[in-house]
Write a structure and sequence with these properties.
Distance between the termini: 45 Å
Strand content: 15-25%
CATH topology of the largest domain: BirA Bifunctional Protein, domain 2
Largest sheet: 8 strands, mixed
Number of domains: 2
Number of helices: 15
C-alpha cells in the first residue's frame, strides 16, 4: 500500500525543518498582533463558489466536493481566506476593534497534477487582516512575508507587485481585454479560450509559451486604474520604499481567485523551476460583503509549506533532528524499575530521554545510546541498586560519576545546562 497520489507522509526526520518554518511564521505574526484561528477541514460548497468564484480553475476543476449523508454538498477547503471570512461574519468579529488580524496553518486540498512542491493535500500558512483599507496594511503584509523568507534563508526570492483595480475601473478594462482576446483567439490554447469567455483576467495565468506570446501586447489592468485605485497603489509603493524591498511591477499578475481587488503580490523563487510561485496575496475589499457580512475592506496572504521546504532544501538548508540528552541503561528487574522512575523524572524536567525496549545486552544498550547521539548514559545494575546510586557516563569524554537515585534528574539538568 502507498499514500494516495498527490499526498505524502511527513516523517520524523522531515519535521524539524517544518517546525522551524512554523516557528518563524508564528513569531513574526504574533509580534505583529495576529491571533491564530482554525477553521473546519470542510465547508459548505457554496462558500467557495461564492467566495473564490465560479469561473476560477479551483472551483471549476480542483475542488474535492462530496455529498454527506444529509444530502448537503460539502468541500474540503482548497484555500484559507473564504473560511476565515466566514468565521469573521459568523462570530460577529466586526464588533471587535478593527482590523481583526488572524493567521492559520492548516491543510488544503486541490485536485491538480502533482509536481515538485505541489500536492493535492498540502499545508498552508496564511494571514488575514479584516477591517481596514489602509495601504500601509498592504505594505505591512508584503514585508511580513519578506521577513519570513529572509529569516529562513530562502534563496533567490523576487517580489512581483500589481493592482487588480476595483468595481469602478475593472469592468471597462475587462471589456477592452475581451476585445483583444477575440483578435488573438486562434493563438490561444483551449483552456484560455474558455477563460476568455468566463473570466478574461484568468488568461494571464496560462503558462503555455504560445499563449504568453499572444498576450504580450494585451492591455494591462495596472495601466488602466481609476484615480482612487491609482492613489492606493502609489501609496502602497511609497510605504515599501523605506524598507528597500525590491520588486518587479507586473501587469500580468492576477492571482488565482476572483475575490482580489487593488493590491496583489506574489513572491517567486527561481530555484523552483517553471512553477516558481512560493507565496502571495493581496486585498479583497468586497469578499466580506459578498459572503453576507457588512461592507468591510480586507487583505491577506498565503504561502505553501512544501514550496518553502523545497526552496530551502535546494540551498542545502535542512532541519536538525533533536538528539537524545540521556539514555537509560539497565539490567535486572530491580534495576529496570529504578530506571523507569528516573526516566520519568528526567523527562519531567524537559530533557529528551530514552531507554531500551528490545531486551539488548549492556553492550547493545551502550551501542544504542551511541546511535541516538546521547550526551549522557545512566547505568543501573545490581551494584547500583545495592548502593542506591546510578553511574552517569559522559558519552564524549567517558568520565563517570556516581549519583544518588533521588538526585540523578536534577544533577543531569545542572550538568547539561
Amino acid at each position: 500500500m502507498q499514500a494516495p497520489k498527490g499526498t505524502y507522509d511527513v516523517l520524523p526526520a522531515d519535521q524539524p525543518l517544518r517546525e522551524k518554518i512554523f516557528g518563524e511564521a508564528r513569531r513574526i505574526l504574533n509580534t505583529a498582533g495576529y491571533g491564530r484561528i482554525s477553521t473546519p477541514t470542510f465547508e459548505d460548497t457554496s462558500l467557495f463558489e461564492r467566495g473564490v468564484g465560479g469561473s476560477s480553475d479551483i472551483v471549476r476543476k480542483e475542488m474535492y466536493t462530496f455529498e454527506d449523508k444529509g444530502g448537503r454538498s460539502l468541500t474540503l477547503k482548497p484555500e484559507g481566506t473564504a473560511p476565515v471570512v466566514r468565521a469573521y461574519i459568523q462570530h460577529g468579529m466586526h464588533k471587535l476593534p478593527q482590523p481583526v488580524k488572524l493567521w492559520y496553518y492548516e491543510r488544503m486540498f486541490r485536485f491538480e497534477r502533482p509536481q515538485a512542491g505541489r500536492y493535492r493535500e498540502h499545508y498552508q500558512l496564511g494571514a488575514e487582516a479584516i477591517g481596514s483599507g489602509d495601504p500601509a496594511l498592504d505594505a505591512g503584509m508584503i514585508m511580513m512575508m519578506s521577513e519570513l523568507y529572509e529569516s529562513l534563508g530562502v534563496p533567490d526570492v523576487e517580489l512581483r507587485l500589481s493592482s487588480m483595480g476595483d468595481g469602478n475601473c475593472r469592468p471597462a478594462y475587462v471589456k477592452r481585454l475581451s476585445g483583444f482576446l477575440k483578435s488573438v483567439s486562434d493563438q490561444l490554447c483551449e483552456d484560455c479560450r474558455e477563460r476568455a469567455r468566463l473570466n478574461p483576467l484568468r488568461v494571464f495565468d496560462c503558462k503555455h509559451r504560445s499563449c504568453q506570446a499572444a498576450l504580450a501586447d494585451a492591455p494591462k489592468l495596472i495601466d488602466n486604474l481609476c484615480q482612487d485605485c491609482q492613489v492606493h497603489f502609489d501609496s502602497v509603493r511609497k510605504f515599501l520604499e523605506p524598507f528597500g524591498r525590491s520588486y518587479r511591477l507586473d501587469g500580468t499578475l492576477v492571482r488565482g481567485f476572483d475575490y482580489y481587488t487593488r493590491t496583489t503580490f506574489e513572491y517567486e523563487c527561481a530555484r523552483l523551476g517553471a512553477q516558481k510561485g512560493i507565496g502571495g496575496g493581496g486585498r479583497y475589499d468586497n469578499l466580506v460583503e459578498e459572503l453576507g457580512g457588512p461592507s468591510t475592506p480586507a487583505a491577506g496572504f498565503g504561502t505553501g509549506m512544501e514550496r518553502i521546504v523545497l526552496a530551502l532544501e535546494s540551498a542545502g538548508i535542512s532541519g536538525k533532528q533533536p538528539g537524545v540528552d540521556v539514555f537509560m541503561i539497565s539490567f535486572g528487574d530491580d534495576a529496570r524499575q529504578e530506571a523507569a522512575i528516573i526516566l520519568h523524572r528526567i523527562r519531567g524536567l524537559g530533557l529528551i530521554a530514552d531507554t531500551d525496549y528490545a531486551g539488548r545486552s549492556v553492550k547493545g544498550q551502550m551501542k544504542q545510546a551511541n546511535r541516538l547521539g546521547a550526551r549522557l548514559a545512566v547505568i543501573i545494575g545490581e551494584d547500583e541498586v545495592a548502593a542506591g546510586r546510578a553511574t552517569v557516563r559522559d558519552m564524549e569524554s567517558g568520565r563517570q560519576s556516581a549519583v544518588a537515585f533521588a538526585s540523578v534528574a536534577e544533577w543531569i539538568r545542572e550538568r547539561l545546562a
